[in-house]
Amino acid sequence: MQTHSFKMMDGNMAAAYVAYRVNEVCAIYPITPSSPMAELADEWSASKVLNLWGTTPEVIEMQSEGGAAGTVHGALQTGCLTTTFTASQGLMLMLPNMYKIAGELTSAVFHVAARSLATQALSIFGDHSDVMAARTTGFALLASASVQEAHDFALIAQAATLEARVPFLHFFDGFRTSHEINKIAVLADGQIRSMIDDKLVHAHRARALNPDNPFIRGTAQNPDVYFQAREACNPYYAATPAIVQQAMDRFARLTGRHYHLYDYTGAEDARRVIVIMGSAAATVRATVAALNASDEKVGVLQVRLYRPFSPEDLIAALPLTVEKIAVLDRTKEPGAVGEPLYQDVVASLVEMGRKTATTRMPVVVGGRYGLSSKEFTPGMARAVFAELAKTQPKTSFTVGIHDDVTHTSLEYDTAQWPTPDPQLTEALFFGLGSDGTVGANKNSIKIIGESTNLYAQGYFVYDSKKSGARTISHLRFGPQPIDAPYLIQKAGFVACHQYAFVNSIDLLRHARHGATFLLNSPHDAQQSWVSLPQQVQQAIIDKNIRFFVINASAVARDQGMGSRINIIMQAAFFALTDVLPTDEALERIKDAVKKTYGSKGEITVRRNFAAVDAALHHLVEVPVPDTISGTITMPPTVSPAAPVFVRHVTARMME
Amino acid sequence: MQTHSFKMMDGNMAAAYVAYRVNEVCAIYPITPSSPMAELADEWSASKVLNLWGTTPEVIEMQSEGGAAGTVHGALQTGCLTTTFTASQGLMLMLPNMYKIAGELTSAVFHVAARSLATQALSIFGDHSDVMAARTTGFALLASASVQEAHDFALIAQAATLEARVPFLHFFDGFRTSHEINKIAVLADGQIRSMIDDKLVHAHRARALNPDNPFIRGTAQNPDVYFQAREACNPYYAATPAIVQQAMDRFARLTGRHYHLYDYTGAEDARRVIVIMGSAAATVRATVAALNASDEKVGVLQVRLYRPFSPEDLIAALPLTVEKIAVLDRTKEPGAVGEPLYQDVVASLVEMGRKTATTRMPVVVGGRYGLSSKEFTPGMARAVFAELAKTQPKTSFTVGIHDDVTHTSLEYDTAQWPTPDPQLTEALFFGLGSDGTVGANKNSIKIIGESTNLYAQGYFVYDSKKSGARTISHLRFGPQPIDAPYLIQKAGFVACHQYAFVNSIDLLRHARHGATFLLNSPHDAQQSWVSLPQQVQQAIIDKNIRFFVINASAVARDQGMGSRINIIMQAAFFALTDVLPTDEALERIKDAVKKTYGSKGEITVRRNFAAVDAALHHLVEVPVPDTISGTITMPPTVSPAAPVFVRHVTARMME
């Protein structure tokens, strides 16, 4: 086993890092949230970064995902190791070629940042409706649940497809795993090399269509033989689950990270189990740990290999004591008898029950969660376990919304639960799209993850309007690995980079008791206090919050940086948290400045350096009085004179 | 109830007939086997045939099915009643728009002649893999099982979609129902009119996007509201099954044909039941009738509404006595735990079992049949019932092939079973693609169906090579309705239009005892006999076959018709069967000639008339001796010197 090189990166980069190294052709048409995979491959290819075999992969951008899929199919037929990256409607345009690639038993991996499909509205956010629309194609579907898994499974999928001949769709949650920055053990080239068997690569090449080895493929078949030929793939699909598990076992020997097709976590004698796929598995694991600590008997089964689905392995992973199962799907198929993962689990239990002559079939219900990146918290997972505890648990329920029309939704507690690790720091930053807040926070979390022994996670919330809209950066760091694919509920540090927000957003709703609040304020300490709305003052007093202000806008102007306040706020953040000695932190910020702005010339870099040095002189703690003062109150979200729809619907959306 | 006007037509025309009358826009990109629907609509529009509202529907051909789907979506947004016709890969290109059309709750019907998807090879033939790939879109799926149903359900779907707001995919089996000519009761315009509620049409119009009624649709939604908005369609899907049943009930009052979402046929106390969708339901019905006549207790449940699937209605239709169920799917999804209809039935039984607290769950197994128009006969359905009778019936089985690799296939008896109605005439015609045989036989079966009180069915087998390959016409007629969606097993009449076939095809394998054999022979009676291969002579003697020859090629040459022998053979067919008085039959043939060749000028018509008149003078019965004579034997399919693959695989395919 090699020692690890830890890096901070997001799921897109983690997957693309491996995909690029084990392929020769990437046919792309970038689509949100998978675009960075295609863009990184394009960048690396332009910089002549080499793959495992010492050649530069060719990256070809087509006119649409339909063309990209055709190019993949064509390149595979020449014997090239070929991949693509896509999501959502892009994946839909690839479906016809996917049936053919799978039908022809072609080794290939597609990497997908799973995203909603456009239905009643378009959405760029994440759920499994796109990959579920591809479950009919004959591709294997392998689900990663974290940035580390996106990295590792990109390799395991490639190793498995070469042996199995079944093509793989490797996916992870779009706008969660794809865009979450986490600290991962980066695979060394030697490890990647060890997982790829050259004999299998040569066999893939030998299946190429070329004049030296004339062979017919892609024919038209008639009723006389089509059905028989269609069934000829059966042995390949039957062998695939074991091939994937063997690849996982080999991978474990190389890296120490041991995955299984279906991984169970929880009580050995659990009565209630949630079955789930993708990043939310970590949320349920946190829930299970907390509930079992209170003497409940629950568990979670994480599905990694969704196609070919292996009923034997699923049942073997479940505790024999299970009485009730909730299968959670991150998709919705209106008109079906439950969603796809639910149906597969039900069919598996029925079939295996018959084979093993078990008389007791557990109660199985299905639910939907997290459509289009809707938050899924441990509190919601707890609500699912509570529903399972009822005599007649609901099926086809929803969790995470309030459905007052068809009453599918489960009630859940919005209070923070469970209590987070006291050694974990959680920090929230409110900024404006394109004000540099997100960029600076990405640098901050990378500095923390890569300059300390701490684990770290960064996640950034912005809407599809992108530039100009509100951004919220969620940073976590601490001594334990951070596998929390949900937003920060209560932060120990809250920063507001845009002064106007104090009047329009309930910034301190997510501040915990004793938190630190940093405000970019145009006023001095005293004036800053009296300018706060009374509600904010009250929250500061009630929660015993330490309140700091910095006139970052003035510092930026003074240093000739216009409205770019991000570096200044970043310096203040490091000064107020003890994650690094302040001097070292400032040096790291400057390193990041050099990296980020180096190409913009010496003057820009020097101005940024000066801003960093000047920042801390302007950071001031505001003494917090015992009582509120001033006359300012937060205005209502919308005018009381607004139309009914705006007051009752739009206002709630804005809140 | 109005009296019926009976016509002979195929499923494509039957569906298009209604679709054209109830729409204003048809956006098309014709694809086999759905092309005739689009082509007929185009032809009718060019001829200014009017729809129900007295306007000529606009038919727009696009650059691909992707464009056609976009046009459908756009036209629907203007409030037009809009349809399209497609299949297979064409349907795949429509999927992205289908998610949107369904997501926006838009009333529309797509008519699909269901066809295989290209996997290990392309196939133009029929199965459900295309419509199953659309089951995730949120469209309702309504399955027709016969030409009459394709006609009727085109209307029921339109009536239902206007009320339900859920769009419908109405489908029938490609290259079975789509191309089978059968005698149907054609809906009168008044009946069609009665099914379409103008209030609902106006409501559809009122939902149009236009400047007079500004409204926003097709937005981008973010995690704050997408999930809630996605669930907002629930009441519409919940209401759809009842809306469809009500439309079926209304339809029954108008026409006397009463359909249900799930129609059960068989023993009231059946122990074993097959669940199936599409034309093969009729095959299983024939099987059930024959088995129950031998005191078995079996039944068949035909699924008509596949989406939204209604577990309540499914369970209500099943007899309470059922112990074992086989669900047959006409598709294959490698890697899934059973095929889609199977999964829906399993999930329904589990859910309803829990609701009704029934303790006994029937044994349910799943099987695949009929991929790419592979024959599915009553003998195969009997094999499924036999498998169900075993203690541990197989699941994920196949029927209709011999799977010697993964041993999924059930053994079945290829002998003719059950004995057909003795009043039914079955006739087989062997011709060559483009020799006019199929065209003449289409005219023949239309003459029989429309000039007599008999029911009639015509089905035509040719492969994807089309022109130049062998064609086999299967004609059935008799006093009872003919619902036999499988090939003729034993014919009372066998005609060979191409002399060369007597040496290469075992023509009489499908002749029953006492059949009539008509051969287009260049020889006189005696020479025709001695020129037959010994095997054919033996079959004629053994089966007591009456043998007729006609030198149709000589007649055609004499009448200046070149190689076009079809009219002459058609006259001989009518002379040898007693379906119509010969004189009347010849008049009907001449009528058809006028219709078919009228546009080619007076000379062509007159030559055909002369050929019809001359034909019967050349028809000669060959006296059949008691023993074979001559020295001719049929050559082996391929040379014994051919390579192993050709002898063992290609030869079997050719046979």
Could you outline the blueprint of secondary structure elements for this entry?
The structure is a homodimer of 655-residue chains.
Chain A: E1 5-10, H1 11-21, E2 25-28, H2 35-46, E3 58-61, H3 65-77, E4 82-86, H4 88-103, E5 109-114, H5 129-133, E6 140-143, H6 147-164, E7 168-173, E8 181-186, H7 189-195, H8 198-206, H9 226-231, H10 234-255, E9 262-266, E10 272-277, H11 280-293, E11 298-303, E12 305-307, H12 311-317, E13 324-329, H13 340-355, E14 363-369, H14 378-388, E15 397-399, E16 425-432, H15 437-451, E17 455-461, E18 470-478, E19 491-496, H16 501-504, E20 511-520, H17 525-531, H18 534-542, E21 546-550, H19 552-558, H20 566-576, H21 582-597, H22 602-615, E22 620-622, H23 644-654
Helix pairs in contact in A: 1-2, 1-6, 3-4, 6-10, 11-14, 12-13, 15-20, 15-21, 20-21, 20-22, 21-22
Primary descriptors:
globular; 655 residues; homodimer; 9-stranded mixed beta sheet; 7-stranded mixed beta sheet; alpha/beta; 23 helices
